[in-house]
Specification:
The protein is α/β, with parallel strands linked by helices. It is built from twelve helices and eleven strands. The longest helix is centred in the last third of the chain and has 25 residues, at 324-348.
């Protein structure tokens, strides 16, 4: 009798494991609940990218051969205002309107919703990701306060006549985005452009000064961070901080940058940038820098020959698991366990 009960229990366990395995294996994708919101953000980014391309044409700046899809979002391989090395394939990957849909998902994952306050430090290294963040916040209805920097890595927004601050200011003037920069900086060494050609950076600074947007020119690292945090806090405490690119005010001056993705908690020190400072204070901090890992984490292609159409791909979908195998396994196990119970009762009698 005891041997039969043992067999029934083993069979029940096997059925449960089989049901679990089939449940995980039999899946299908359906549109995410925020599909319309993500598509709207991507369409918004598409309009912004098209406008930037037109600005570039107005200025007579030719497209690079590396810009295979002709987006206009890739800058020079290297010039006198380039701050660090960057990869053309990473910049091509970000020049996809679906990145705005991805940012909607990441912001939501970090707890951002309508009326949330988001602070951001945007270098010029990934101008398309900067636009993705702006469009995502506007689609969600979150209040974005961002500080835009001139400095950019290779193939970023390092065009002297069309830096990322130039893009953002023009897009705002043309009513394509509703959020202008709260402040500007040169970026680069000491966040003051010390590693740029002085005459060229001077021309850029003079042009941007005409915008009447406050310009941060603070070499002292701690004072710079305090000034930025005061700007972010002007409307009240922020609910999330986003750092796009690798500026020292975002990443800090330590030997290694903070990890990619959403940071929650941690320990900051005197060399920490805003990502670690906010994360330590309990404010979710999002670091956008490792594009290859970013798209891998969220199921998007890296440097595709043809980017997916708006509304298609991983950011717009969620996975549903079939409930039938689990339900069948549960029903069978209930019957088997009833049998085990009855056999045990008979044995005691």
């Amino acid at each position: 009798m005891r041997g039969a009960r043992t067999v029934l229990i083993a069979v029940a366990l096997a059925v449960a494991l089989l049901g679990l395995g089939l449940t995980r294996a039999i899946t299908h994708t359906v549109p995410a609940e925020d599909f319309a919101l993500k598509r709207a953000a991507a369409q918004h980014m598409r309009r912004c990218m098209d406008a930037v391309l037109s600005y570039r044409r107005e200025l007579g700046i030719p497209l690079l051969a590396e810009d295979a899809c002709g987006t206009g979002m890739l800058g020079d391989g290297f010039n006198a205002i380039t701050t660090t090395a960057g990869a053309a394939d990473a910049k091509r990957t970000t020049a996809d309107p679906n990145m705005a849909a991805l940012m909607v998902g990441i912001l939501t994952e970090a707890g951002v919703g309508p009326e949330s306050r988001v602070g951001a430090g945007l270098s010029g290294s990934f101008p398309a990701m900067n636009l993705a963040l702006i469009c995502a916040c506007e689609a969600i209805g979150a209040e974005l306060t961002y500080i835009a920097s001139v400095g950019a890595s290779t193939y970023g927004a390092n065009l002297p006549r069309l830096t990322f601050p130039d893009m953002a200011l023009r897009l705002y003037t043309d009513a394509l985005i509703g959020t202008p920069p709260a402040a500007l900086s040169m970026g680069g060494a000491s966040d003051t452009g010390l590693d740029m050609d002085p005459s060229l950076s001077g021309e850029i600074r003079a042009r941007l000064d005409r915008s009447d947007v406050p310009f941060l020119d603070i070499r002292d690292f701690s004072e710079n961070l305090r000034a930025r945090m005061e700007i972010y806090a002007q409307g009240g405490p922020i609910d999330c901080f986003v750092g796009v690119g690798g500026s020292i005010t975002t990443n800090g001056t330590g030997p290694s940058a903070p990890p990619h993705g959403i940071l929650r908690g941690g320990t900051a020190n005197e060399r920490s940038g805003l990502l670690e400072i906010y994360a330590e204070a309990g404010v979710p901090a999002i670091h956008i820098i490792d594009i290859r890992k970013l798209v891998a984490d969220y199921g998007m292609p890296y440097d595709p020959e043809t980017p997916p159409k708006i509304g298609e791909g991983a950011p717009y979908m969620r996975t549903e698991y079939s409930k039938i195998p689990a339900a069948c396994a549960l029903a069978i196990d209930v019957m088997l366990l009833i049998c085990v119970h009855r056999r045990g009762r008979r044995a005691r009698q």
